[in-house]
Design a protein that fits this description.
The structure is a homodimer of 423-residue chains.
Chain A lengths: L3 E2 L6 H7 L20 H4 L78 E6 L5 E4 H4 L5 E8 L16 H5 L2 E10 H8 L7 E6 L6 E5 H4 L4 E6 L2 E2 L9 E3 L12 E7 L14 E2 L5 E2 L8 E6 L11 E10 L5 E7 L7 E2 L1 E3 L8 E9 L4 E9 L8 H8 L12 E4 L5 E4 L3
Parallel strand pairs in A: 2-11
Antiparallel strand pairs in A: 1-19, 2-3, 4-5, 5-8, 6-7, 6-11, 8-9, 8-10, 12-13, 14-15, 15-19, 16-17, 16-20, 18-19, 20-21, 21-22
């Protein structure tokens, strides 16, 4: 194990090795002999001597064809039916913190339904002074808030309870996305209906056939939950709950009810199927942890990773990944090159937001030897992301939920990367 | 003129007028008589009793068909050719601050070219110690930064110099977008090449046939300029410069060179076509203001606006819009309902970021009478967005560039909205 830190120092010495330079302007990279002219520099190319696409070519654009591999992917054997299944965000190929809606993971319990704004209704009933039904237009008349938040499936990393079973950062940790939402605080709608003093729990239910329903304490509903219409600036996509979904910052994704149709106010939790037989954590003694809503601090290195190997050989290498916490802001991420023996602090870049994805990066000078890459997040509560073994020691391996253990990538000398565990 | 503020107070009294409520749970809105059952609530709908789309339906998704009107649009008579033209972001239909790449405005000088990563080269030459050529892969080995920034065409609002000529918020002010970028600071590449002491200007040039080229002072190039690969988490789209564009926070969009192929370092500005015959501001005395790179503080109400009229009649109304400044953070936005006679402070929501779009909102209780809506941005330098007439008094009307004057929307009693000017 090796690879030494080169944070903040000039990379010139190293890049000069690969970048032939001088009066003749030869090209970078190992494939070209120094001094050989590069036609991509010395000759006029087709794209520099003809017209490209006009401005009316694509009223709404899609990614360029060269990026066609950057898509959601699913694993057929994971679930019985594709209408009650999951796919995965290609986090290994993304950067920054925003997840485009087009490739943000989906989890459906009975498929993604098509529901128009005119057909949309939201009912608030139960222990309220005045039961209410809102049309979509009604909702647009309430004060709005903007909030960026991560949505993580409780089962993200769930296969890792049993060891390194899936190859690829997308499949092991890609049940997560991060978007900028705009919506009405649920608090305002509840205040409109008037919650009775005995109302202590809120039950949110979707309009799809599964009627996916989840309970949450009234305190959370009155805190930072949004009845959201927009994500990343535009309307929610169909698969993300168009026209209205619940945004429950820091809480597991199953509670972010899509195609939201009802908010019931009760004196106790509903204990629905989705919070009893599912989304509870079966412990070694046969009892279940329940109400494990808040997603604990976690991180993962997205590149290099099994789907994002090192192609360029030794020398300067950007190690980058994502960190998040359902309890607030990520305050620190450490990276290990040797399977957790030694750690160095990564740089957090961009605006660190509470309950939202944070990007970290560590720049190293890779000497070409094997690495056991790990990352470890710390949040503002002081919580430190644990190892998988530390989690298993308490929780066992019965559950597929809430595995926020440290992920290990084994980088080989040839730059390929494998999902492994270290003892 | 009227319409009174209702910021922060309960909307219950007003909404109760429109929202029939009670034991029978009748539906909201004027179209249904109070007490009449709404089948959308009382009957099981198709979408609640059948499967929706599976998770393998759309590896990369697009907006739902109901939002097909939220697209970039161009105005054919504005330019001679669609390969050297502009289209407009549908800002009237967006919310929050992020602009999806798919509907973010485009400006091309010879069309959007298709350039693959293997074919990509970036040359740094001129007054440097060591001229260099970088492949795409070389660039990915340098330290990266994340930065959200607005990109505004210098001609945004340009038709407004001659008065209210275009209908719709999209067409008057939609040459703007705001994305989260990831890239290498240009500073690091220049340091790699080694800028000679006499190098004072940087010239950036694109790989398209127009070779769109612009000069900027070395100080800016060494400050916050990014050589960017990612926008909103994913690769740049073709029309936004895939695989590499320049991000020049706060500066006019023409300088954000797409398909970036060369950075030249010189002792003076190049004075290219794009910074002499174009992108200079012709004053009344025939002289031209030049080097007017920084986009001054500006704002616009996106809804209600001509393409986003008020459908719901009087009562609670969310007035929302965008504000920005090339000089830093927006610190305040005021809204007038009476054409600038009286102003009230709007709420700024989300994270206010320097040189990035900021969302503002004002919640009012509309009495149904006519409004002359205006917004006025103030930035951290203390600069106050001027009226169009104040700008014209100094700059005349020869130019199509740098009109950051206050926009007025005339809201009629029926909720329709017109682009007008007030004396």
């Amino acid at each position: 194990m090796s690879g030494t830190e080169n944070k903040g120092t000039s990379r010139r010495a190293v890049l000069r090795g690969g970048l032939a330079a001088g009066a003749g302007l030869a090209v970078a990279g190992a494939a070209r002999a120094e001094g050989t002219p590069d036609p991509l520099i010395t000759e006029v190319q087709d794209w520099a001597s003809s017209f490209g696409d006009p401005v009316d070519a694509t009223p709404y654009g899609m990614p360029i064809r060269f990026e066609s591999q950057v898509v959601r992917r699913n694993v057929e054997w994971l679930t019985e039916s594709p209408v009650s299944s999951i796919n995965f965000t290609p986090i290994h190929a993304l950067e920054g913190t925003i997840t485009p809606q087009g490739c943000a993971f989906e989890r459906h319990h009975s498929g993604a339904i098509e529901l128009s704004k005119p057909d949309y209704r939201l009912m608030i009933d139960g222990l309220v002074e005045t039961p209410l039904v809102f049309t979509y237009e009604d909702l647009t008349r309430f004060p709005r808030e903007t909030r960026t938040a991560f949505c993580e499936c409780a089962a993200n990393g769930g296969m890792e309870w049993g060891g390194a079973q899936l190859e690829g950062c997308q499949f092991t940790q890609g049940m997560i996305h991060n978007m900028e939402y705009v919506g009405v605080p649920l608090r305002l709608l509840l205040e409109e209906a008037g919650v009775k003093p005995e109302g202590k729990w809120v039950y949110a239910e979707g309009a799809d056939a599964s009627s996916n329903g989840r309970s949450m304490p009234l305190e959370k509903a009155m805190d930072d939950v949004l009845v959201a219409f927009y994500a990343n600036g535009e309307a929610l996509r169909k698969e993300h709950g168009y026209p209205v979904r619940l945004v429950v910052p820091g809480f597991e994704g199953n509670m972010w009810v899509k195609w939201l149709r009802r908010i019931g106010v009760y004196d106790q939790a509903v204990e629905s199927r989705e919070e009893t037989s599912k989304y509870t954590d079966l412990m070694p003694d046969g009892r279940a942890r329940k109400w494990t809503w808040v997603m604990d601090a976690k991180s993962v290195i997205t590149s290099p990773s099994p789907q994002a190997p090192i192609y360029h050989g030794k020398g300067p290498l950007v190690i980058t990944g994502l960190a998040w916490s359902g309890h607030g802001k990520v305050t620190r991420v450490d990276v290990s090159l040797d399977g957790g023996k030694n750690w160095q602090e990564a740089e957090l870049t961009g605006e660190a937001q509470s309950k939202a994805l944070t990007r970290f990066r560590l720049n190293i000078d890779w000497d070409g030897s094997e690495l056991l890459l790990q990352s470890r997040a710390v949040d503002e509560t002081g919580y430190v992301q644990p190892t998988k073994d530390a989690l298993r020691a308490i929780r066992g391996t019965n559950s597929v939920y809430h595995n926020n253990g440290i992920q290990t990538w084994w980088v080989h000398e040839n730059g390929e990367v494998e999902n492994v565990e270290v003892a």
